[in-house]
Amino acid sequence: MMNRLMEEAKKKAPIVVGLDPNLSFLPSQILARAFSELGETLEGAARAIEDFNHAIIDAVYDLVPAVKPQIAMYEQYGIPGLMVYQRTVQYAKEKGLIVIGDIKRGDIGSTSEAYANAHIGKVSVGNQRISVFDEDIATVNPYLGTDGIRPFLKTAKEEGRGIFVLVKTSNPSSGEFQDRLIDHKPLYELVAEKTAEWGEEAGGKPYANVGAVVGATYPEVGKRIRELLPNTVLLIPGYGAQGGTGKDLKPYFDKDGSGVIVNSSRGIIAAFRNERYQSYGKTRFAEAARAAVLDMKEDLKEARA
Question: Which residues are catalytic, by number?
């Protein structure tokens, strides 16, 4: 799956659009239409999010290889929200996009297996094996160690899917734990080393089907992690809204100028609120998103040069 992702990134751009909608920045006409039909209810909120997502996907699917819906943005609206999450995954795949489910799950045993089944595998119902959310790749939290990761590895290998392991995240307080020294190494290096081992177990050539999440806000860390993970796809959050720029990302790319997929969420889906794209207005929010993707593609060329 990671190799397919990189092939598509070469054809289009190393960009993943984060589908993290929030009612606070959805265009008023989207909200008004949904609320007029379903009221100011969870169902109304879910309808607005689905309409918004479809418009964004329609505007960018030919420019990017993947989208990354963050499940919490849907869970907060209960069952209607989760139904929209599922339908968003399906719609994106119908458009030929790879879907990275940003679920950040981390548990052990049968619980971890259940998460893996729900998101990148299948669940058994009588004699049937049924896909549930059906993402291509899922993000996972390694805090519980190999016990929490192995069920995902097993499912990914069986189903031809992938996982991204949180190695060094982009948030300011990530260093409270991730930068702590253990045996004279920061914790994120130890996680990177384990990620390499898990990648060997999961298989995949030239890129392992286990990738690493590494924030754009720490270029020197990115350089070190690339040294530790030469054959691993790095998912880079923190671009744009969190301060990362194209020039910061050069150390993250491998020797072939590949091996990276850069996420932008609000910077793309809420671009119409940015002064740079204000001429589009709220009625042309999807066109503003497309313009933001094209600008990001140009910005990333500096990193790949």
Answer: 104
